[in-house]
Design a protein that fits this description.
- The protein has 471 residues and is α/β, with parallel strands linked by helices.
- The protein has 11 helices and 13 strands.
- It folds into 2 domains: 152 residues, no CATH class; 283 residues, von Willebrand factor, type A domain (Rossmann fold), CATH 3.40.50.
- The protein starts with a helix and ends with a helix.
- It holds the Pfam family Tad.
- This is Pilus assembly protein.
Amino acid sequence: MCNRKRVEAISRLQQLAQDKNGSIVPLFAIMVLIMIVIFGAAVDVSRSVSAREKLSYAIDAAALSVAAQLSTTVMTDSEITEALSETFAANLEGEEFLEKALDNLEFTVDADNGTISVTSSATLDNYFIDLGGFLEESFGPDFMEFGNSGQVSYSKFDVELALVVDVTGSMTSNDMQTLREASTEVVNILLPDTGDTGDAKVRISLIPYSQGVNLGDYASKVKGGAYYSERVSGNCVTERQDYEDFEVMLTDDSYDYYDEAEIPPFETFFGGGTNGCSSSAKMVPLTNDRETLLPAISALTDQGGTAGQTGIAWGWYSLSPNYVDVWPSDSAPAYYSDEETLKFAIIMTDGDNNRYYDFVETEWQKVCTGKKKKKTCSWQEVPVNEWQEVGEGESYSNTSSTRSRDLCDAMKNAGIEVFGVYFGTNDYSAGAKNMQSCASDGNYYQASSSSALIKAFANIARKIQQIYVSK
């Protein structure tokens, strides 16, 4: 009896165990499914977060790229769209949401505040949340939607830059090649090759100097050729001096400032006291045309002594609104009052100044009369009325160096930011100290090697970019 009851009890327990397993199996399956969805959801969310970060990066990169172009070039809406899409797609290459993100790519340009805003959105299919759509109604959507935006400032300003470079005889052939490469780097950074520079917002003038500046076709006008054509020859222009009550030597007053007489005196114009200019290294007034600047840079050759004050002066005049009637209309400098134009000058030398020019009205000459044994000679003051070159020892305090620094100060007072570059190893030389004095605060560079000169010019160009973008 007891044995039978024991068998029945065991049988019932076994049956109960079987019934319990039957209820746990489906419950376990449901729990596994829920766990898959939970952990899978984490995967889907993580994928969407990663995609959103990639989208954000691509938006920022595209906006920055276009902002850099807008800082130097006027762009149409279609050009902006093309440039944005190109950079945007490059940063999302291979992403499954790229096509949708490109379709939703939009931008807004605020010309008044100088900003470009870029937005985009996309979707990413879920792998786990809806289990292929099976549990969509219960657990969630079949895709994740995400988006982002970015805003970048660009420069509203136009830029005028005078590139004043030393092409004197002390520059060796290797030095000249380095100077050509460094100057080309400036053009490439500030006027990148976009295929069309016609709308570029940056204009650059090139002023190679030695004993004077080769002004080419512009020389005759500023030397008084309209009144004294018989006395004016050659394209080499030196400097000018004060006349009577007109103190113009260290100013950017117009070349034809003198209006007290119908025919201005010859000495009120610029001089041509030397033929020491390089015949191929010619001044180029402000231009945004790479095809004008780059060949002129390639043609730079060295010749003559150092009249740095002349190069500095003509660098200033290339930026001065008082010289709008000298240059072609496309090269006319903006007025100083134009708050949307920034003016810069890069002045470079490898040595010390040793030349200046004065207009000589009379001088003492030995004058002889009579013939042979009856000839008598005496020193007499005779009229000369011509520009004469004066050579001088190289020093920080000589006439040409003093004039150079005074001209730099006047340029800076006019609102032009100046960069000074000394190409040499002696940082105590007159040339180095002149460039230190000429440079605006924080803008002096010493380049003791060829690679350093190229790097200095490139760094200055990038600094100019930062200045006009940050403003």
